[in-house]
Each structure stands twice: as C-alpha cells, then as structure tokens.
Amino acid sequence: MSGVTFRSLMPLLAAGVLATSVMARPQSQEPSAASDAFRLTRVAEGVYHAVGTGVMPVGSNAVVIINEDDVVLVDSHSTPAAAEALQRQVRRLTTKPVRVVINTHFHWDHAHGNQVYGSGVEIIGHDFTRRMLASGASMRGRSYDMFIGGLPAQVEQLRTRIAQTPEGPDRATLQQQLVSQERYLDATRAVVPTPPTTVVRDRLVLTRGSREIHLRFLGRGHTGGDLVVYLPRERLVATGDLLTAGPAYLGDGYFADWLTTLDALRGLDFETVLPGHGDALTGKARIDHFQAYLRDFLAQVRRLHAEGLSAEEAARRIDLRSHAEHYPTIREAGILSHGVYRAYDELDGRTPDAPGPLPW
Ligand SMILES: [Zn+2]
Questions:
Q1: Which range of residues forms the domain containing residue 42?
Q2: Any bridge partners for residue 230, and if so which?
Q3: How far is the CA of 170 from the centre of ligand 1 (A)?
Q4: Cα(110) to centroid(ligand 1), Å
Q5: Å from CA of 299 to ligand 1 middle
Q6: What is the CA(280)–ligand 1 centre distance, in A?
Q7: What is the C-alpha to C-alpha distance for residues 2 and 16, in angstroms, rounded to an integer?
Q8: CA of 251 to the centre of ligand 1 (A)
Q9: How many domains does the chain have?
Q10: pLDDT tens digits in sequence order for the chain, 360 residues long
Q11: CA of 68 to the centre of ligand 1 (A)
Q12: Pairwise CA distance, residues 271 & 283, whole Å
C-alpha cells in the first residue's frame, strides 16, 4: 500500500476520539502506572473499557467483565504481548480467572492475542471469524498486508533515515521509534492464529449470577461475522468495529448489509457504547452519523465507478468533509483506498476472499 504507513493509519483508526458531542460521561478510572498498556475505565459495576495508552501497540480496545466467579473479556488485541499486557492489568483488578474471551471479529487487532489463553479458556466468535482464523486468512489479504505486511519495510526506512540523520535529538527520536517498531514486528511474528473454540451463528447468552451477557450477530457489516456483546441490565453494548468512535475501517465491509445491521443495533436498548476503537460513547447518535457517512461514501463510489475511474483515483476524489462536524479528524478530501477497493469489488461482482467451509 503505497504512501501509507502504520503510523499514519493509526489516526484513522482512532478517528473521532475528539468528537465530544456523544462521548460517554467520564466514569471512574483505575489508577494506572506509566508502563501500563491500557487505561481502564469503569463503565458499570464490574465492567471496564480498556483503551490503549500508546505505551505499546495493542491494536484495539477490550472490555473486561468481572462476574461473581470469573472474568469475560471482549477481544484479544494484535499480538500475544498485548494480550498478556491486558491480563497483567486484569490481575490487578481481580483474582478471579479469565474463563471466556469473545472475539468481535477476525481482524488481527482483535483476535491475534487469542493464543495466550490456555485450554481452560473458552474463545467465542462468529462462525465466519472461526473460519478466517482457522484457515489462516486472518494473516493475509489487503487489510493485513497494509497494516502488518508493511512493517518490515517501515523498519528498513527508519534504519535508512537514522543513518542519514546527524547525532542529536531527531536521531534519538528516530532510534526510539526503531526500537518500538522492531519490538512490534517481533511481536507480530509470534502470532499463531488461534480460532474460537465455540461458534455463534445467531445468538448466545452467558449467564453469570445476576449478569446476562448476550452475544448477538445482527448481520454482516465491518466483516462477515461481527458479534456485538450486549449487557441488557447495564444497558451497555460492545460493538467491536461495527460502530467505532471515528469512521470505521471499510476494507473488509459488506456495505449494503452494514446499513441494515446498524438499524438492528439501534433496536437494542442501550445507553453506553464501548467501541473497538476510540473512547466510550453515550446514546445512539453515532449510529446516525456513521450511517450518513456510509451512505455518502457509497453514493460517491457508485458515481465515480460509473464514470470509469480507477479505485485509486476514486479514493483521491471522494470527499467526506461534510461529516467533519461529527468526525473532526476528517480535514481533507480523499479516503483510504481499501474501502474503495472493497466497494468496487461489490459493484463488479467480485466475491471477497472467502475462507473455506468449516471442517465439520
Ligand atoms: Zn476490524
């Protein structure tokens, strides 16, 4: 993916964090150490939203649900090292064991820490998520190539820049970046894709004393198998990347389905949204914002496709600045081309890389 670096993509993933209009009320935050990889914010009794601090690349947020006898986690981050970092912080909150990890979807930044959880931990994901991880498809494809496949080249670029930079603060900063990127590259090489042990196709309810944890597949959207985790008593929903604080990554989306899946999400009774990227949100306004963004994106893509433009050229011309009121990180025209590639695939009738059938 030319001209796009891991570092430059991160703001896209975290986009919308500054959109204060629908941000959740600040709740109590766990005391943290400077070395902590996560900021843990308590959003309900025993429920914490874990958001990366930037100390290490963790990829996505997680949700920690502490029950009477055990702990349920939502998502496992980008590497085993990141998943272990969350486990260390969870152990400071409770001595209860982690017994369940839910993958909201197959993306590397939500499911590539699964391997740190031993055989005593049930990993739950959608059927599609299991197939993507079991077939190795989570380790290839346009999205993976862009975010992870480019890391070795970025490390080499940093080495070249360091060699060309005289001694001084700039060079020291580059060297710190190099150490961080090399460590991250090593961590990604330690990933062994580990599929869910329990598959959900429609819905599943976990009961833990007075707590109910509903896992719902509301339809395709960000991927072919997005699960939302809904706590009805707490009126809280963890949405993975089906709905994020900023505009969600579109590169593996099912666009027509996504709009109706968001309608189904709106039908749940909740007040707090814990997204897979960005801070917690209050209410349902972000659903409206994102549906408007998606509709506008699709209308522009269809027009540019009909005019015969390449996906790359269309990506440069798409202009979503009218959504900047709700997504302030949108400052100029143009969009990451992966969403356009995907939309062109749909328009041209090309089916996405589909994993093989389940082995049963
Ligand atoms: Zn994702």
A1: 15-138+194-294
A2: 214, 237
A3: 34
A4: 7
A5: 23
A6: 17
A7: 24
A8: 9
A9: 1
A10: 233 333 344 433 333 333 333 555 556 787 778 889 999 999 999 999 999 998 898 999 999 999 999 999 999 999 999 999 999 999 999 999 999 999 999 999 999 999 999 899 999 999 999 999 999 999 998 889 888 988 999 999 999 999 999 999 999 999 999 998 999 999 999 999 999 999 999 999 999 999 999 999 999 999 999 999 999 999 999 999 999 999 999 999 999 899 999 999 999 999 999 999 999 999 999 999 999 999 999 999 999 999 999 999 999 999 999 999 999 999 999 999 999 999 999 999 887 655 544 433
A11: 30
A12: 5
Residue written as token pair 């998606």: 294
- Give the number of C-alpha atoms closer than 13 A to the C-alpha of residue 317, restricted to the C-beta side: 16
Q: Determine the Cα–Cα distance for residues 37 and 39; give it in Å rounded to an integer.
A: 7
Residue 180, both tokens = 């961080």
Asked, for residue 125, whether it belongs to a domain, the answer is yes
CATH, residue 86: 3.60.15.10
Terminal C-alpha separation, the chain:
36
CA 144 to chain centre: 13
Length of the chain: 360
Give 249 Cα–ligand 1 centroid separation in angstroms: 7
Q: Give the pTM.
A: 0.89
